[in-house]
Amino acid sequence: MPRSPIGLAHAVTALLAFLIVVDVLGLGAATYMMSVMGDLASGSAADVGAGAANQAVAAISMTTSMYMLGQPGTATLFIIWLHRARRNAEVSAPDVQRRTPGWAIGGWFIPFANLFIPYGIAKDVPRASQRDPYASELRHQGLLNARWGMWIASSIFDQFAADQYDEASNPQAPHDAAGWLMAGSALDIVSAVPAPLFVPRLTAAQNEKAMAGRQPLRPSVPQNPAVGGPVMGGSPVPGA
C-alpha cells in the first residue's frame, strides 16, 4: 500500500525555501564585498572604514556556513522523499519505472552516474502519478528539466566561483571573485526555484491518483499506535 509523502514534501519544500533565502543573503554579501574591495582597489581605503573589509569577509563566511548547514539536511530529506515517491509509483504503475526503488537512494552516491540516474527516476515517477501513465505528454517535465539542468550548471559554477574567491590575494582579486560569487548566487536562486514547485505538485498528483483509485495514502506512522506495540509498516531505514 502507498505511503504518504505529504509530510516529507512539506519539510523538503521548507528547507528548499530556506536555501533560497540563504542564496539571496549570499548575493547581498557578495555585492557588499565587491563594493568594499572595489574601493580598496581604487585607493579609496579611507572611505571604506577600518572594519568594512572584515565585515565583508564575515558576511561571506556567514552565508557560506548557513548554506553548508542547510544543504545536507535538505539533500537527505529530498532523497528520502524521492524514494518514498518511487515506492508509491511501484504500486500505481510499476511497468513505466525503469529502475527499482533502491536506485532512488543509491543512484546519488555513484560519481557521474548521480547526474542522470536520479533524474531518470524523478522523470519516471510523475508518469506513474498521471491518470494515464502511457500518455505521450508528461506532466511537470518542464519543471524537472529546468531544475536538473540549472542544478548541474550552478554546482559547477559555484565550485569555480569559490576557487576564485579562495585564491584571491590582493584587493582587486577579491573584487573580481566577489563578482563570480554574485553570479553564482543568482544562478543558485534561479536553479532552486523549480524544486519547491516540483516537489509539492508531484506529491499532490500521487495523492490525487491514490484517492481517485480508492487507495488513499496511509500515514507514515499510524495514529495512536498501541503503547509499546509494533508500528505497522515501519522500517528501520528512513523512507524505506
Automatic annotation (TrEMBL):
Residues 227-240 have a biased composition (Low complexity). Residues 209-240 are annotated as: Disordered. This is DUF4328 domain-containing protein. It holds the Pfam family DUF4328. InterPro entries: DUF4328. Residues 50-203 form the DUF4328 domain. The chain crosses the membrane at residues 12-36, 56-82, 103-121. Keywords: Membrane, Transmembrane, Transmembrane helix. The lineage of its organism: Bacteria, Bacillati, Actinomycetota, Actinomycetes, Kitasatosporales. It comes from the Bacteria.
